Amino acid sequence: MSSDRWEDFSDLFREGRQPLPRAWADVFGPLRKGTVDDLVIVGQIGQSLDGRIATESGHSKYINGPAGLVHLHRLRALVDAVVVGVGTAIADDPQLTVRRVAGPQPARVVIDPKGRLCAHARMFADNGVRRLLITAQGTRCAPPCGVEVLNLPVTDGQLAPSAILAALAGYGMRRILIEGGANTISRFLAAGCLDRLHVMVAPIILGAGGPGLILPSLERADQAPRMPIRVHKIEDDVLFDCDLSAQRVAVGVAKKST
After folding, report:
1. 148, 120, 119: which is closest to 134 by C-alpha?
2. What is the side-by-side strand order in the sheet with 148-152?
3. 195 and 34 in contact (C-beta within 8 Å)?
4. What would the DSSP string read from start to end of the chain?
5. Which residues contact 182 (CB under 8 A, 6 or more apart)?
6. 8 A C-beta contact, residue 153 and residue 163
7. Which long-range contacts (C-beta less than 8 Å, at least 24 apart) are formed by 5-14?
8. Of 53, 123, 151, 188, which residue is most buried, by most CB within 10 angstroms?
9. What is the dihedral of CA 79, 85, 90, 94, to 10 degrees?
């Protein structure tokens, strides 16, 4: 895929009426419109062949190659909001901006139930883009000026993924990227709150380290649900585009049957 036409494509993608060029539609077309409701929620994770997102020491820059990182920035350019958990925000201090491709900047959202993220975090930088901190009701937070705070009720000691998405939908955000970390993506997956999961696999083996997904164990392998997938070779990396819409719970305005 060449990047010289990307800016035109991102505009066309958001406009929503005209067909997409095939070169881009195979990868990004499924993210254009929701099938369950008016939201599209995609999770993105980059990992090694043996399913690791970091070494045992926590080092992760960069497991995926340059093309895999460009894919992540393309996803950011197509969504209304990019979401990370507070653990990732503290450990990696990400900017969550679109830099490797042309395109609009998404709102930056951190899930921070206890108000742990410091005011100097790079994702809080005031560059004209909306910034949101989602925390538990009753938590005292002191984010920088301009950062919006969403207070949500705690369920079983955590903020429910469906409540988070409903709150973002209430702010007008319809296309949402859950970028990390492993625990956050796993919670959205387990809760049936992802339409797609993009797993970018790098041709390396780390041997030990943090797992990409952390889910309840199964007794038998044949109990594991199978899902439709699309596979794309992106230079040295391989993208597994997993269709999770069959298990997605309705969060926004439900689609009407015809």
Report:
1. 148
2. 148-152, 131-136, 107-111, 81-85, 175-180, 40-47, 196-201, 237-243, 229-234
3. yes
4. --STTHHHHHHHHHH-SSPPPHHHHHHHGGGSS-SSBS-EEEEEEEE-TTSBSS-TT---TTSS-HHHHHHHHHHHHH-SEEEEEHHHHHHH-------SS--PPPEEEEE-TT--S-TT-GGG--SSS-EEEEEETT----PPTT-EEEEE--BTTB--HHHHHHHHHHTT--EEEEEE-HHHHHHHHHTT--SEEEEEE-S---SSS-BS------SSGGGSPP--EEEEEETTEEEEEEE-GGGPPP-SSBPPP-
5. 45, 53, 210, 211, 212, 213, 214
6. yes
7. 6/74, 6/77, 6/101, 6/102, 6/103, 7/101, 7/102, 7/103, 10/74, 10/77, 10/78, 10/102, 10/103, 10/104, 13/78, 14/78
8. 188
9. -10
**One-letter amino acid of 2:** S
Over residues 180-202, mean pLDDT: 96
Assigned token pair, 172: 């007008």
**Average pLDDT over all residues of the chain:** 92
Place of tokens 């492993």: 182
Residue 71 tokens, joined:
């894919």
Give tens-digit pLDDT for 123-166: 999 999 999 999 999 999 889 999 999 999 998 889 999 999 99
Determine the straight-line distance between the first and last CA of the chain, rounded to whole angstroms.
Answer: 36
